[in-house]
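Lecture 7 notes: from sequence to structure.
We start with the chain below.
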Amino acid sequence: MTNPHPSTPEQYPHRILLMVTGRTPQVVTETLYALTQRPNPFVPTQVHLITTAEGAQDANLALLDPNEGWFHRLCADYGLTGIAFDASHIHTIRDADGQPVADIRTEDEHRACADLITDWSATSPPTRTARPCTSRWPVGARP
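Predicted structure tokens for the same chain:
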């Protein structure tokens, strides 16, 4: 099997959208919309969020509610299928004692956030057949 070229991330069979959010979960649906409406649409197969305890609560309510969740509405409105995203894909930043961080204000809280991003990126399953998207555009795919 030939691996897709990094400049064509939409061709990878596994496409992971990793987002770091705070209390504005709408950036998830805004980003998904933008990525899927490009000339070469990037439809992730998984969405993962790294956020604070408050951000996780907001994301669960605003995005994943079975009746009112904006993620489900976006997928239904635009025929987006096959995107794995549920509460288990929301990763809460924790302090050195393992307690959820409510907001990122201190140097230690910033360090905890950076550690979670690094740890998640290092231990998640991207392989030669997966393409992570961790910025405004998939890596190597600027329009």
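Points to note: Confidence is low (pLDDT under 50) at residues 127-143. The longest helix spans residues 107-123.
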